[in-house]
Amino acid sequence: MADDDTSSAPAGPTPFEMMGGEARVRSLVDRFYDLMDLEPRFTVLRQVHGSTLDDARDKLFWFLCGWLGGPNHFIERFGHPRLRARHLPFSIGREERDQWLACMFQAMEDEQVPEALASRLQKSFFDTADWMRNRPD
């Protein structure tokens, strides 16, 4: 490889870096689950999660770190995320999808995720959340 070859150089900061690292990802996840627990408009989504949110908080934090380009905490603990397979036991339709997205978008706004990053994430979150639907509406 030539000394001036930059093909393996990073193309810029990762979304994880743009977010501000683990502390900011944890803050986003905590705000997401706090909103889910407190806001009546997320009641259907909250009911899907069982009596406690502690396990879900950790798993989403671990997953998002890696998904955003940071440490692969989730994969190190559980292997490939297999998101759809892991969510099949839960009934997910449009209402659950829409509440998940609204809750995450509110959390991103509350946590002041930079606008350019928030726009990118909104598209990715929608695509993923829509793919997770497993119940016809």
Keywords:
single chain, 137 residues, mainly alpha, Globin-like, 64% helix, globular, disordered N terminus, Group II truncated hemoglobin, heme, GlbO/GLB3-like
Give the SSE layout.
Blueprint (H helix, E strand, L loop, with lengths): L14 H5 L2 H17 L4 H6 L5 H14 L5 H6 L4 H5 L6 H17 L4 H18 L5
Helix pairs in contact: 2-4, 2-7, 7-8
What does this protein look like?
The chain has 137 residues and is mostly helical. It has a single domain (18-132), classed as Globin-like, CATH 1.10.490. The protein is built from eight helices and no strands. The chain has helices at 15-19, 22-38, 43-48, 54-67, 73-78, 83-87, 94-110, 115-132. α2 packs across α7. The radius of gyration is 16 Å and the shape is globular. It holds the Pfam family Bac_globin.
